[in-house]
Design goal:
Blueprint (H helix, E strand, L loop, with lengths): L3 H14 L17 E2 L5 H7 L11 E9 L5 E5 L7 H8 L11 H10 L5 E9 L4 E5 L8 H12 L8 E3 L4 H5 L1 H4 L8 H6 L3 E5 L2 E9 L13 E5 L11 E4 L8 H9 L3 E4 L6 H4 L5 E6 L4 E5 L2 H11 L17 E2 L8 H14 L14 E3 L1 H10 L2 H13 L5 H17 L4 H14 L6 E7 L16 E3 L5 H13 L4 H9 L9 E7 L6 E6 L10 E8 L14 E6 L6 E6 L19 H18 L11 E8 L3 E9 L4
Parallel strand pairs: 5-6, 8-9, 9-10, 10-11
Antiparallel strand pairs: 1-3, 2-3, 2-4, 4-5, 7-11, 8-12, 12-13, 14-15, 15-18, 16-17, 16-18, 19-20, 19-23, 20-21, 21-22, 23-24
Helix pairs in contact: 14-15, 15-17
């Protein structure tokens, strides 16, 4: 506990000296205060700031401040490592007679973030080290007026020795909307400038071991990497085979496909500006290393083989994973007949979509009239054409360890080719075409989506390993047959096989179903969301990424940054924090959402859908504190929202 006399002395000294920037540091050497009133040197900052692990951006230092409007606008710079929330500081020091009570935590938040007659102005001073920026920021849920923000800025600025560098950064849509009232009075900076100025971006903050390899994305198919490699890439790839860690030269988003794969696999993932030519990394090329990705920085060093082996073993299940399937159901199935328990018949993707149709209340906006081609059709295709025998022979050779990497790749290609060129049972094809004809017009573009029994397992996620295809009935039965066989053949994609092998999956029990529904055409926007705060679990939120048009969100590049929003679910009213805006909207003036992909009303509608999906699926899976759903969505013609897919978000 701090000595009260020391605190009182510091306060008196700070109050007497004001913000005279010629003074020495406020805090005497050896002191460790809970708060001070003036920051006079970098050492004062260093004593009070926190390298918070829940910061949205890395290489940042956070300093909470509080302004007591009932005590002459007295400014407090708070020891943020010790008091991560303003309430705890106010409750300890400022609950005094003759002033508005601090109250309970809930009362404090409602009054001081949401009301005009608030006692306190609350915020933080952020030091963005990569960008060399010093910013004042309010909470995303703070409804402070423009005058309040300008007042807070002025009081904080004159209390900082480097206050002339202070900029105001709006973090919510409402705060952005007030910029016309603010920008002429105080200097401002936009979130995009902060995002673009990063040098280090942590995506999956864990430790990994592997041989450090460098690859250009264009080389990956010709120079593959394996499960015991950590790979440095020049760009963000659309996909990457199982590796022990990823470093990209280009920045990602936390919901990029490669990061979701990293979370599923339990392997580190980060972005580092200039990584491909970084001297420290290049010095370790080809060596066995330990990579630790932390929330504020990373470390990499040479490692011992025994440590690496322990890590690789920890990634793999101890026992063989045996996928369960039921091929006795031998007819096409409307999703209205199915639920999550039917994943053993139609695979996880189809079963999850069917389960969404059971959510109470207004029906979810799902693809219309979807149906599933169950495992039985795939199994019949293999057996009727002798392909099951080829699979048995391949698995026997793999078990005997007689195939080189190149031979395995060639055998898998041959297997996929045999599946694709083999004739489909005429009765099966006729039944599928007939089902399409009763649901949609001949010219309707359709999606044929992979749905396996090796997805969303407790120890194996399987996301992104298989292939979907498109066709319409008007293109003829041949196009329909080709789309089906593309999906079936993808059960034996090289990447899928290697990843299943590493996780000890019994390949002989793998089965592929096909989910068929209308394609999303002329989409205005697309996106993906997870129903958890990826940055701070103590502040519940939905993390929503979206992009205009058909430009990918899960596979973005530095040339097309998606919108990233934290939609908080714990405020009295809906509030959200803007991390980045869509780079494709910057020059558009006629977009209905203005600077945002979605209008506020559409975002509220999407959040309601996410909440319903989360609450419905949560009791269907084993209890875990960090349970969340991974949801893909579209904004279609007429600005109608559709849910494309939902699956549990896995993390090892």
């Amino acid at each position: 506990m701090r000595v009260p006399l020391l605190i009182a002395t510091l306060a008196l000294v700070a109050g007497a000296c004001g913000a005279d920037k010629s003074q020495e540091c406020t805090v005497p050497e050896g002191a460790d205060p809970d708060w001070i009133r003036v920051i006079r040197c970098q050492a004062d900052y260093d004593l009070l700031t926190s390298d918070r692990e829940d910061a949205v951006f890395a290489h940042t230092a956070t300093l909470n401040f509080l302004i007591d409007r009932e005590d002459g606008d007295r400014v407090y710079f708070i020891n943020t490592e010790r008091f991560d929330l303003h309430y705890f500081f106010a409750a300890q020091y400022l609950d005094v007679p003759d002033r508005t009570p601090v109250g309970t935590h809930g009362e404090f938040n409602t009054l001081n973030y949401r009301r005009e007659n608030r006692r306190f102005l609350l915020g933080k001073v952020m030091h963005y080290q990569d960008q060399g920026l010093l910013t004042l920021e309010m909470s995303a849920g703070d409804t402070a007026s423009a005058d309040m923000i300008v007042d807070a800025y002025g009081l904080v600025k004159k209390s900082l020795f480097d206050g002339d560098a202070l900029l105001y950064r709006p973090v919510s849509n409402d705060q952005e909307a007030m910029l016309d009232q603010i920008a002429a009075r105080i200097p401002v900076i936009h979130t995009e400038d902060v995002f673009q100025g990063q040098s280090y971006q942590p995506l999956n903050t864990v430790v990994g071991y592997g041989t450090l390899q460098f690859r250009r994305v264009a080389e990956l198919s010709g120079r593959p990497v394996g499960p015991t490699d950590i790979v440095v890439l020049d760009r963000v790839p659309n996909d990457v085979s199982l590796v022990s860690g990823i470093v990209t030269d280009e920045f990602q988003t936390p919901l990029s496909h490669v990061n979701l794969l990293s979370k599923n696999r339990g392997t580190p993932n980060m972005a580092l500006a200039g990584a491909f030519d970084d001297d420290e990394l290049r010095a370790l090329e080809g060596r066995l290393v330990r990579l630790q990705v932390g929330p504020q920085d990373y470390s990499i060093e040479e490692a011992e083989l025994s440590e690496a082996q322990d890590f690789w073993d920890s990634m793999r299940p101890v026992d063989t994973l045996v996928p369960v399937f039921d091929a006795s159901v031998d007819r096409l199935l409307d999703l209205s007949e199915l639920g999550i328990a039917d994943s053993v018949i139609v695979g996880a993707k189809a079963a999850n979509m069917a389960e969404m149709g059971k959510i109470e209340g207004t029906p979810l906006p799902l693809p219309e009239a979807a149906f599933a081609v169950p495992f039985a059709f795939y199994q019949r295709h293999l057996q009727a054409n002798g392909i099951d025998l080829l699979i048995d022979a391949l698995l026997s050779d793999v078990a005997a360890n007689t195939l080189s990497a190149d031979e395995l790749r060639a055998r898998l290609f041959d297997l996929r080719w045999r599946i694709f060129t083999a004739p489909i049972d005429p009765d099966d094809l006729a039944a599928i075409v007939a089902a399409m004809s009763t649901r949609w017009p001949a010219e309707q573009d359709l999606r044929f989506r992979s749905s396996t029994n090796v997805e969303d397992l407790a120890d194996f996620n399987g996301a992104g390993l298989y292939t979907s295809a498109g066709a319409s009935r008007g293109e003829g039965e041949g196009a329909v047959a080709d789309a089906l066989r593309v999906v079936w053949a993808s059960a034996w994609n090289h990447q899928a096989f290697v990843e299943r092998e590493f996780y000890r999956v019994d390949h002989s029990k793998v089965r592929m179903a096909v989910l068929i529904h209308p394609a999303f055409v002329d989409e205005l926007a697309n996106g993906v969301a997870v129903t958890i705060n990826e940055f701070a679990q103590n502040r519940p939120a939905f993390y929503i990424n979206s992009q205009v048009g058909e430009v990918s969100v899960t596979n973005p590049t530095g040339q097309a940054v998606p919108e990233q929003i934290l939609y908080y679910t714990w405020y009295e009213e809906p509030e959200y924090e803007v991390i980045t805006r869509s780079s494709l909207l910057r020059d558009q003036t006629d977009w209905p959402g203005g600077p945002s992909v979605f209008t506020p009303e559409e975002l509220s509608e999407l959040a309601d859908l996410l909440e319903r999906i989360h609450n419905h699926f949560r009791p269907l899976y084993p209890p875990r504190a960090d349970f969340a759903m991974d949801v893909e969505f579209k904004l279609g013609p007429g600005r109608k929202i559709f849910i494309k897919q939902a699956r549990p978000l896995a993390g090892r």
